[in-house]
Amino acid sequence: MNLVDKKENKFALTTPLYYVNDLPHIGSAYTTMAADVVARFQRLVGNSVLLITGTDEHGQKIQRSAEDKGESPQDFCDRMSAGFGSLWELLDIKHDRFIRTTNVRHQGIVKEFFQRVWDQGDIYLGQQKGWYCVSCEEFKEERELLEDHFCPLHPNKQAEWRDEENYFFRLSKYQSQLEELYKSQPDFIQPPSRRNEVLKFVEQGLQDFSISRVNVDWGFPVPGNSKHTLYVWFDALLGYVTALLPEDAEATLDNALAEWWPISLHLIGKDILRFHAVYWPAMLMSANLPLPGRVFGHGFLTKDGQKMGKSLGNTLDPFALREKYDADAIRYYFLKEIEFGKDGDFNEIRFINVLNADLANDLGNLLNRTLNMVKKYCGGQIPQVVSHDISTESPLKVIGLELTEKVKLAYEALAFSQACEAILFLVRASNKFIDEQAPWSLYKQGQQGTVEKVLYVVLESVRLAAYLLSPIIPNISSDIYQQLGFDINFNESLSSSIEAPLCVHGTWGLLSSEQKLGIARPIFKRIEPPESN
Ligand code: MSP
Q1: 360-395 pLDDT, tens per residue?
Q2: Most buried in the list 43, 46, 214, 514, measured by CB within 10 Å?
């Protein structure tokens, strides 16, 4: 399926805008790493890409967190938001836009959007009664809560009773339009399990939801009634629009939507599916704006089998993890080991084992031993072989010729784990091929021609594997490419997509004897397991 929407070659994607009540945890890093991989892949395919991330800074949860720290909400937000930016840098995430919902230009966009929805007659004043989970920033049905009104997503937080005047958005009016959307665009919500969840929810009948608060100061005032502030989610979703504003443009919807709208892909976690797959499209319908291409809700991460969350305090600190391990290692583990869309676990021993097996042993040793043999048996030059010289029965060529298409489909479907498995299959087959062919014996028997062919197909397979893995492990891929004599750095994402597009570098047989091999060095240092105690 082609992910690129209407506007030719343009692919805009978003991560959620993260709450700044605390420093980023691994859950926020997970979505952002995945988004960065998608962005890098889309660039290699030749699309113009805009990766949007940012922070969600209004609402009661943030207001209370700032009070607890004795800081003004704005100072608190400034400090916390900066932490997200630095983590993205540490993880080699190259976002194009970072939107903060306290940005003054955002208020202009929210105001204009509110007016459009108001003019449709979709906003009215009513009385909101119900249980509110401040950590979710969401009203809950009594049946959704645990005993004593504790929230299932934040089991140490009790929902609070509210009975107040709020403005409401007429969600119920969009029931059939939404149903029509899910029917006509079955891929709008992914994966299918999430789609079913939404269909069930909508089937029960949609109720209008409140979009203002009277007891929260930390938010934009409702246009025309400053007794109310806007509900944090109403303002937050519109952050995706504000993020599109060109730097010097006036904050108008027309300016924001001109170049990149509609967003091709919203990447989110499963807990915020309703907001993105139900409320958001309805808000856009009301404002008469085109809808995003798709919403993908990934699963939750656990640590050592235990649920992990900011409110529970058992989070895996991504900064500490990054201090111990390289960005590529972290990116690889989460994208390869966890099927995107399903829940997944982090366990340090497993982490070390996977990296040692895949990157140090399978990929790293393959490159290293092959380069050493090229040095010994071919004078350190890439053999003068071209793809045409290799039989179409050669097992690595057979795999290599089909690999790019397979991996492309996997990346497009956000099946990162499948992409890695397919690439690793070529790497493992290459190791097996060397063992079986035993170039050292062939060399002794004077079969120089065969030695050269064997080493060529293996080097070419390593190259292709490195290239196809570059959205996930850009540093290691660059290192391999440089050892193979290319002057390409996949971490310069824009230049690498121009210098090494998929249509050229995804073709098996690109490696040429004109390349001058670089110096062989290990691409991934084996990690020693921590001492057991
Ligand atoms: N501010 C809202 C999003 C507004 S988007 C316009 C929000 N922020 S959040 O910081 O609480 O969560 C951001 C993302 O982190 C969500 O997609 C959520 O699913 C994800 N995760 C939170 N805990 C997680 C795990 N334990 N595992 C994986 N992702 C998790 O919601």
Answers
A1: 999 999 999 999 999 999 999 999 998 888 988 899
A2: 43
Q: What are phi and psi of 17, to 5 degrees?
A: -90, 120
Percent of the chain past pLDDT 90, that is, above it, reads 86
What are the pLDDT digits (tens) for 324-360? 999 999 999 999 999 999 999 999 999 999 999 999 9
Distance CA 522, CA 524 (A): 6
Task: Give 431's contacts (C-beta < 8 A, 6+ positions apart).
Answer: 362, 365, 366
State the pairing for strand pair 294-298/265-269. Answer: parallel
Residues β-bridged to residue 307: 302
Which amino acid makes up residue 275?
F
Alpha-carbon torsion (192, 197, 202, 203), positive or negative: positive
Domains of the chain (ranges; CATH) run 10-324 (3.40.50.620), 348-505 (1.10.730.10)
What's this model's pTM, rounded to 2 decimal places?
0.95
| Residue 239 Cβ contacting ligand 1 at under 6 Å | yes
Q: By alpha-carbon position, which residue is closest to atom 23 of ligand 1? A: 27
- The CA 9 to ligand 1 mean position distance, Å, reads 29
